[in-house]
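JOB MANIFEST
job_type = single_chain_structure
chain_count = 1
residues = 272
[input]
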Amino acid sequence: MNTESWNGLDIPKIGFGTWKIGGGSFADPSQDARSLAALESAIQLGYTHFDTAEMYANGHSEELLGQAIRASGKKREGFFIATKVLPSHLSYQEVISACHGSLERLGMEYVDLYLIHWPSAGMNLKDSFKALNELVREGRIRHLGVSNFSVSLMQQSQQLSETPLLTNQVPYSLYDRSYVKNGVLEHCRRNNILVTAYSPVDEGRLRVSQPLQSIAQTHNVTPYQIALAWLVAQPGVITIPMSMNPQHQAENLATVDIHLGADETKILDELA
């Protein structure tokens, strides 16, 4: 299955993360050509779900993503675009300003998904969601989500959001089950909230154990593809790997066609 169904919306199981597109914590224009080439190849391969943030390259990631989508000649409506507000911008007025800033950099009238990037000590979620709900009503945001939120913070957010939360974006991989252990995965499943797994192959540093290597050889694919296939086979889980390499981008997309056996899934479940 290539998509995850949520409230009548079909969201690609495999999206494209844009951390390091355009730079790291700061913009690095010297990387523009490489970044645009990566986005161009991803779009040509068929990626439609792109995840960015005002934090990425200090907003330059958003600028390059918008530029690449316009250059593709494809219709805006064919993409699912997610971006995020910094934890330092969670007051009512700052959320409004941050969202408008992201839209301006993207060159778009709306985003499909807008997330609170990280919880912040002392944040006033009531204030934040007052702004977020207003932006949804105005059509600037189609859906709301959170990232790196605990169960208790999710519960508060659910009560404050006028529309259903679409996702909690968290680190989740074969070897990182921290948000399974803290109950977030189960809470999301019980409440029809998707889990968006980021760092799904540990930012390219996946530990290739013998069992993982053996399963990959059985399917004639890479261990990285098996790690992604294990994630996207789970109901209610989508993921946003990132690669500058067109071959790796294609391999990531192809993981939705890898069908793991029950015994293989059990072995992978027990790796962490």
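[summary]
Residues 187 and 223 are 29 Å apart (CA to CA).
Residues 3-203+237-246 form a domain with the TIM Barrel fold (CATH 3.20.20.100).
exit_status = 0
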